[in-house]
Design goal:
mainly alpha; 126 residues; globular
Length: 126
Amino acid sequence: MTDTTLLVAQIAGPAFIAIGIGFFVSRDHYKHVYQDLKKETLAVFMTALVVLSAGIAVVTAGNTWDTLPDVIVSLIGWAMIIKGLVLAIAPDFAERSALRVSRGGMYSLIGVVLLVVGIYLTAVAY
C-alpha cells in the first residue's frame, strides 16, 4: 500500500462511514440533496470543481493497482474525476441521474456500499 493510498484511506474511510450512516439515519436529507440539484447551480459548479480537482490529485499522486486498498483508492479517484466532469460538462444529465437515484430507492444500497468500503479503508488505514 502506497503512502498516497494510506492518506486517502485515512480521509475517505471515516468520511464514507459517516455518509453511509447518514443514508440510513437522515434519508430525507439526502433525498432533498439529490432532488434539489437544479436549484443549487453554484453548489453544483463548486462541487464539480472540488470533486474534479480532488480526483485528479488522487489519481496523479497514486494511480496504483498493486493491492486491494490501492485499487479501491484508484477507483475512488477515477470515480471522482468522472463525477466532476459530468457535473462540469453535463449538469442536466447529473440532475436527471440524481433524480433517478432519489426516486429509485437506491439509498440502502448506496449506504451499505459506503459503509463497507469505509469500514474496510478505515481498518487498513489505522
